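pasting acetate--CoA ligase (ADP-forming) for the record, 697 residues
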Amino acid sequence: MGELSELFAPNRIAVVGATEREGAIGRAIMDNLIDEFDGEVVPVNPKYDELFGLQCYGDVGETNADLAVIVVPPKVVLPAMKSAGEAGIQNVVVITAGFGETGSEGAAREQELRDIAEEYDLNVVGPNSLGIMNTDVGMNATFGPDMALDGNMSFMSQSGAFITAVIDWANDEDIGFKDIVSLGNKAVLDEADFIETWNDDPDTEVIIGYLEGISAGREFIDSARDVTKDTPIVLVKSGKTDAGAQAASSHTGTIAGSDAAYEAGLEQAGVIRAESVQHLFDTARVLGDQPLPENKDVAVITNAGGPGVMTTDAIGESELKMADFTDETLEAFSESLPAEGNIYNPVDIVGDADNARFKEALDVALADDNVGMALVLTCPTAVLDYNQLAADTVELQEKHDKPIAACFMGGERVDAASDVMKDAGIPNYFDPSRAVDGLEALSKYADIRQREYDAPTEFDVDRERAREILETVKDRDETRLGVEAMELLDAYGIETPTGDIVDDPADALEVAENIDGNVVMKIVSPDILHKSDIGGVKVGVENEDVYDAYEDLITRAKNYQPDANILGVQVQEMVNLDDGVETIVGMNRDPQFGPLMMFGLGGIFVEILEDTTFRVAPVSETEAEDMTKEIDAAPMLRGARGNDPVDIGGITETIQRLSQLVTDFPAILELDINPLVALPDGVKAVDVRLTVDPDEL
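structre below
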């Protein structure tokens, strides 16, 4: 794959499948290009010598084009691509559908397309694409009805229909774009390729997109991390409520619905996830036009008490906070505001405030070093000129170089003022919560710009021993492993209690006698996942009771599930749970992002409480430590209510070691360590279960 700059700025475009027939896609693309494209348009159709008054070629290889837009029947696409490749045309947009989205025959055709692209080093958009646009050169190589306005955002979408709707709306809202691409099936070029290209484009200030899936999740994370150091990325990802199609047998698999991987992956990538189309454009516009704040503290200047309270609530529900003014600022407000006003945040300058009072209050607030950004909130009054207030707001932002969001509430009287601010890059919203969302996006991106990403630690582990344990599934019908795989954790340096698995009561007693104190005994069967539910766990067993406990556990298991594969009983050192916290560390393999790590509060209620957090593996030390801070139960780990703090470092290292294990062995589909008991002086993995794909070993 070559550079993509020529894809969006070609000099000569060949339309393969051009026609003058009304209603044909080839006609729509030709019309769009002829109307506005700065370069040359070349029709390709062996049936004609001339189309649209232009010379028509029989083969794309004869056109000397630098971009080929292909809109011919599916079976003709591949020969056309070969001809383009042989002629040195590196950039191809395949509009035609009928590939991977249509079944096995289409999937095979799409693989052929991929092979041709690789053979000739082609940049291919699609297939099944609406096309691409570039407003700099007036290129509308789509079959959409409208051309986008010029702007500083570049936009990618997996839905062509969404692009046409967005352009129609954006044109009404005076919102412009630099590049637009309909990703289609992403057979060759995907979202990572485009964000890297737009990061190098000085005219793209913000990258936005609508995605239904991400082709290679880990690669996207790594690419986006580099991009977001310079260029913000804002995405809408659909399918948020989809719980996933696979049947999960681990706690992690049950809790980690398909959206959890996207939520974790996009956050790790530094991508801001929009919750709606409105949120997408609110966020993009503020990121493209506003300076970044130095802190999260907001000053609210308002002439309306009620909306001021609404704004305060919205800030309280966000990652922002209300700014605490310095004594000098409070003194300045005391001198300039009427007695009935409020000098504290939100600053109420009272309903009779004129333009001079508004301007002075905003000037004082922005001058305060404690203030990172401001929100100007106003309702219309007879003594306030909205147009003048807009001009004053623009002037003061230029003076202080701090982000400002405006909330000029009202109807038509706001329009002219809103236009004044929009021209200066200051967004105006009717709803205070949307204004707060905009400021929060700036704060989030300021944090993203400051991130440092450390590389995952490579621990010294016994990979061969781990492989031997995993390969035991090849000799059995069941692909799940339980506590019989505890040595897998030992091989990767994850500490486990002393113990062994036995299939005879006498052996159980021998193991117990070599362990200090009482023991825990558990039934061992890959067919019995929730051992506690059937009485398959006995805690605090004394040596003299081991024999009877063994027999009772076996009997309970057989009565519960007569056809269960019972491997024996685990006899294990007893871990004092009163001194620690039961946590869970797990992994579920996502089809697009790969291994998704989970950490949370563990024990028997993990699926009920779902106090968990996620990261895409491999996980670095910083990311693992952050996971221990994000769960609601984090204070318990750090010593709440006089309890001793547990070994956070031990938890962090366990997350990293398990991350390395599941990255090293793609055959592990899901895995739980539950509980991982965190104690003041260390951590111990008490139980494990995992599912293995033997074909991947």
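The chain has 24 helices and 32 strands.
Residues 242-254 have pLDDT under 50 and may be disordered.
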